[in-house]
Amino acid sequence: MDAFMMTLSSGVVSGVRPYLMLFVLGLSGRLLEIQEIPQVMQRTDVLVITAVLVIVDFLADKVQFLDSVWDGINTFVRPVAGGAIGFLLGGETDTTTAVIYAIVGTGAALGTHGAKAATRAAVNVSPEPVSNVLVSVIEDVGAVVLAILAVLLPILAGIAAVLILIAAIVAIVVLVRFVRKWCARREARNGAVPEGTAPPLK
């Protein structure tokens, strides 16, 4: 049960901060000697690489519009990271369990990644650029808290992950509608004839 809940919550974090999740798992496995965490995650080279990527991810996510490009690049990385973590955690039992955990991790990562991408698209069309940094910081804090819970209190983290996924699905629907309405209003405004000008003669 602990490994499953750890997979679910790790997948949710991976959909937002995949490198952070890998780093926290690896470091926790090495320092706390948690049996569920595979040795491959605890290797020094893996920890160094993920630590560097955590910093890059943190900085890239704070710049307006660059964050959307970064999201696009990580569209494949985040679900793969969630699935890989699930496979490794489940692989300690048997292959069937590893595959099931990989599917769970991938699905959870896709859910939160979709919500993150939709949120960032809505924020980028907002007139307040500071909101971009604020949203990113909130994501950072949430990811750190859930990543730590995934290691120390996996059952609680799993319950929180389910609630987050439900909220993510709702957020995706609402934000997609918002962006569509904003685009429609923008097109209508750009297509309107300015005041004081006559329409073109036929």
UniProtKB/TrEMBL annotation:
UniProt KW Zinc keyword: no
Keyword annotations of the record: Membrane, Transmembrane, Transmembrane helix
Pfam families: DUF4126
Location of the DUF4126 domain: 5-172
Chain ranges passing through the membrane: 12-32, 44-60, 143-176
Name of the protein described by the UniProt record: DUF4126 domain-containing protein
Organism annotation: Dermabacter vaginalis
